[in-house]
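Dock adenine; give full complex structure.
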Amino acid sequence: MIGIMGAMTEEIEPILEYMDDLKTEQIGQNRYHTGTIGKKAVAAAYSRIGKVNAAVTASVLIERFGIEKLLFSGVAGAINKRLHIGDLIYASTLVQHDVDITAFGHPLGFIPETGDFFASDQALNAIAEEVALKLKIPLGSGVIATGDQFIADEKKKRWIAEKYKADAVEMEGAAVACVCNAFNVPFFVLRAISDAADMDAEFNFDAFLKSSAAISADFVINMVEML
Ligand code: ADE
């Protein structure tokens, strides 16, 4: 079983459209959809926004649905100037930019017995590169910084860029990475850019959420077919 996750309904709806034999089950406050994409068994769900919600859904997918790998699809704010609206980036590593235990001498983002930067699965990343090559879709990779904040401010954006060398920012990826790491489940986090985490971010997010979410979902569907 392959797990596919998004944070918002707009991120998962395009995946459900590709799934056959759909069955839906409610667990807690989320709906989990099982079915197939081609010959592959899939469990898909959106978590709702933020790290805690994402951790709940990733845990349920792993523990209740027995997924063997997790693919996350969604949108992100660009930090790296080379990323524009609609561009795809997958996480090579992810970090929680809002974790701060520096008072005890730990580096920013670091949690004892957990760590800071989570590396995504290299085999899944290689499949993504193959899909991009085959379909001639430009695909970037880099550091994705996650926090329970919608970033719409140049100063905060620059701070995240400096402290974490982040290329994109969002609100779930590192939580999913943390859960998958804890359960030893390979994971892949893909994001299409919806905004530049700047003063126009709220406007652009609303304008481009749907189109960028669809770009990311299409790519993930192509990946599932190659798994
Ligand atoms: N997801 C998409 N854009 C974002 C932003 N600017 N900040 C946090 N998460 C996002």
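Observed: The mean pLDDT is 98.
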